[in-house]
Amino acid sequence: MPFLSGLDLSAMFNVEDIRKDFPILYRKVNGKPLVYFDNAATSQTPKQVIDVIVDYYSNYNANIHRGVHTLSQEATDLYEQSRKKIQTHFNAKFLHEIIFTSGTTHSINLVANGFTSLLKKGDEIIVSALEHHSNIVPWQMLCERTGATLKVIPMNLEGELEIEAYNNLLSKNTKLVFVNHVSNALGTVNPIEHIIDEAHKVGAAVLIDGAQSCPHIKPDVQALDADFYVTSAHKVCGPTGVGMLYGKESWLKKLPPYQGGGEMIAEVTFEKTTYADLPHKFEAGTPNICGGIAFGAALDYMNAIGFDTIAAYENELLEYGTAQLLAIEGLKIYGTSKHKTSVISFNLEGIHPYDVGTILDKLGIAVRTGHHCAQPIMDFYKIPGTIRASFSFYNTKAEIDALVEGVKKAKMMLS
Ligand SMILES: *Cc1c(COP(=O)(O)O)cnc(C)c1O
């Protein structure tokens, strides 16, 4: 991950000040101060974003894009300004390349559905062994609809993709490649620059699932030359139920609309309907207006701290947490790539991850246990699941100490 060597973090970043922005971090769970280490599932929301949500419903709530009245115009302006913020954040060339969706899953399904008419028997789709279920199932369904075949880039024990094998999978039959930027189960940062370049050599389009990278990395979709890049607001301090699809203009023009309804049409008669221009062609119905506005506010919040600062601090947490946890005998970490975000997936020898998670919860510590919507990865390691602690920039080393103590206690109680 991007890391500024020699960066004086203490001068730029005071975690105690940052924590004051997050009201939820002050609540207790089971009588203990909350230690929130489930950031890879959803991030917490700062008061700056909560304020935007309250302000929207207190002052601007109206349907957008259709009313001549003042409220509707103000709500439309806020929503479109947010689209602009997202465009700037991801460095998309055109504003209309940013499509609001309900999240990563919706974005992926929109693209998968769109490719139904573009694929035929004999075509191939490549996905990676490190995918979230939301990035596997839609492609299996697309293959069923079109007769295309799904190929899988294998992984190694470190939790990295086998890039040689990927290069060998590519052929003139490859039409699509789908890879996550960062694995949610293991935190591995995948070499997507290489993956995209090689796919383009055979004329395949590439969709990058950025749900897990966007909390830590600021992607530049033009520099990456990604054909599609998708993410969810709730992983970057925004609300649930809203996200985005970035698509290159040429691809978005080629894909048919996903859903029919209001907003996405130019003209409707019973004989024929013509579709609206981008981005509205893909935005049928009343969207999550407040969520879209709050998404922009969440990116503002994170950019004000700065992604280099965030990445450097989280890397400190990752190194500290890895060392502290590995000092526990019988503890094994899954996903040991040099290129990782602040996610630690681990197990205690002979103990079910669920039992450890339950004891940690009694201590106020929120971790994820299970297969993390990535069952093929667990099958690869021949384990039922892991305990996953995922750190954000508002977490502290003291919280990691609490986790380590909790894991030791769980080990004592369960072995
Ligand atoms: C969270 C996540 C998703 C799913 O996001 P939704 O907001 O539930 O649609 C997909 N891929 C990855 C890598 C994720 O981390």
Automatic annotation (TrEMBL):
Residues 35-403 form the Aminotransferase class V domain. Pfam families: Aminotran_5 (PF00266). It catalyses: (sulfur carrier)-H + L-cysteine = (sulfur carrier)-SH + L-alanine. Keywords: Lyase, Pyridoxal phosphate, Transferase. GO terms for biological process: cysteine metabolic process. The keyword Transferase applies. Its cofactor is pyridoxal 5'-phosphate. It comes from the Bacteria. The keyword Chloroplast does not apply. Its EC number is 2.8.1.7. GO terms for molecular function: cysteine desulfurase activity; lyase activity; pyridoxal phosphate binding. Signal peptide: none annotated. Belongs to the class-V pyridoxal-phosphate-dependent aminotransferase family. Csd subfamily. Catalyzes the removal of elemental sulfur and selenium atoms from L-cysteine, L-cystine, L-selenocysteine, and L-selenocystine to produce L-alanine. This is Probable cysteine desulfurase. It comes from Algibacter luteus.
